[in-house]
Amino acid sequence: MAEIFYGKPVAEKIRLEMIQQAAAYREKGIIPCVTIVRVGENPDDKAYENRVFRNCEQIGIEGRSLELPLTVRQEEFLEVVEKLNGDDSVHGVLILRPLPAHLDADAIGRALAREKDIDCMNPANLEKIFVGQKDAIPPCTPEAVIEILKYYAGDLTGKHAVIVNRSLVLGKPLAMLLLQENATVTICHSKTKNLPQLASSADIFIAAAGRAKLFGEEYVSEKSFVVDVGINFIDGKMCGDMDFDAAAEKAAGITPVPGGVGPVTSMLLLRHVLFGMQLNGK
Question: What backbone torsions phi and psi does residue 189 show, to the nearest 5 degrees?
Fold first, then answer.
């Protein structure tokens, strides 16, 4: 039976470290601050914003909200980004996505200062990940996978990881982060042949295909550490890409959905605020 890799203790470890860092800044008269830019009043966006602000309160980070109308023009949005870039009291910026179709999200991401880009919208951060530079601010979900693996599995040197995802949001940056940990990485996708054999031979299996309960016990072995990044719903109930019950009977360890990657991702978003402050010499 697999060990369950819950995200909560990993997130708590990160939270306690951030509390100390934020307190140190406040002692110097610097209040860490994140601004969330939200277009319109989508209830899901507002609920997510509130969750971020609750975490901010626990850590000692100031949270600000900037709501823009659904009719905001591209030029107006870019002006807002430039003002935030130049505001020394703002140390991190989160632009809630998806943006309305009339806005160019890529151009907005490129305009956002890299050091304040806590959700990896600016491709400059991705570029730094791919060349192995330590001052990159990575996407939160790939980084959460690394944090969970290091917490539960320890040193990743020499481990073989199979990732079922090749996107720039997850699979490719995650592969680069694993390589930085001296793991050996295989990226797979829908055209990969013999995927069950590949996956079950690996030490680490990262399921991120976006299909509910797609992967069963044939994708894991007794040595497998499984990280399920999928978010799916069946009859209103959240589940991952793994057939959890089947895989948990066989694997060495597995993350649940919910309760696995998600809590860690949320904490890393705010850790990027403090990291960005370091990059700016604070």
Answer: -160, -170
